[in-house]
Amino acid sequence: MTPSLAGRTVVITGANSGIGRATARTLAARGARVVLAVRDPDRGRAAAADMPGRAEVRHLDLADLSSVRAFAAAWTEPVDVLINNAGVMMPPPDLTVDGFEPHFGINHLGHFALTNLLLPRITGRVVTVSAGGHQAGTLDLDDPHWRNRPYRPFSAYAQSKLANLLFTAELQRRLAASGSAVLATAANPGLAATNLLSHGGSRAVRWTNALLRPLSQSDAGGARTTVHAATADLPGNSYVSPSGVTQSRGRPKVTTPSKAARDPELARSLWTLSESMTATTFPLPLRSRP
Question: Per the record, which residues fall in region Disordered (predicted)?
Fold first, then answer.
């Protein structure tokens, strides 16, 4: 059972629908003040109105680094838990405001910048939502935005989910090297019947969505791993997945991510690249080399 979160503040990106909304409801029901950081404030307010306890809405567009900076600059209070939940999966080909491929720009770089900018105010934990699809991911540091190779939507999605785990691992190394008590964890929601795939533009994506929905768990079921990663007594860099054989559903359980996700040199290289792309850096002084 989720412990009482009375007096805690939790910021959740993309919390107006799907797993983010279900996560927010669960945490609010346990007494947390939840802040829905969303691109569409009207949809966010509609979601917040249906939640128990204290739920607030603030505007955040992860596809626009100026919005990320504005959100962080306006935040003046402690944050107990930041949950990097928002994401896209196989949308029509496009670019973010900053010229990034959307999977890499929203799923990874937006959250990378947000975390670094908010980190001086974070007191407890940073949870980043990845996915089982990271196991199919490879990270091309020379072309993360698919400008010089044929664009493959699922491969771009898998790359971003791998980046989420590499980010978590390197963030935890840096937190430990700084002497911070803040933890970085990650969650795999499994297969959940959310609207994530509904943004895909191809017929193949729509067919995939239709085929997977009967096999999927509910939004609330998918949120269980995120809630566990945010509240359970876990070591840093824990990766929480459903306990089922295929990790598509089941009780939350700490699992081992792919070999690529456990590559410390790749994680450091991704961090350096992400710093240059977002013009943000790890804000805490390091006592030792991470």
Answer: 233-265
> According to the model, what pLDDT value does residue 200 have?
47
Candidates 104, 157, 271, 282; catalytic one: 157
Q: pLDDT tens digits, residue range 19-51? A: 999 999 999 999 999 999 999 999 999 999 999
Rounded distance between C-alpha atoms, residue 32 and residue 26, angstroms: 9
On whether residue 1 sits in a domain, the answer given is no
- Residue 92: give the domain boundaries: 9-278
Q: For the residues 171-199, what does the mean pLDDT come to?
A: 84
- How far apart CA 161 and CA 136 sit, in angstroms, is 9
CB 161 within 8 A of CB 260: no
Task: Report if residue 24 sits inside a domain.
Answer: yes
Q: Is 151 a catalytic residue?
A: no
Contact 164, 134 (CB under 8 A): yes
**Any alpha helices (H) in the chain, and if so which ranges?**
18-29, 41-49, 65-74, 102, 111-118, 153-178, 203-212, 219-231, 264-278
Cα separation of the two ends of the chain: 34
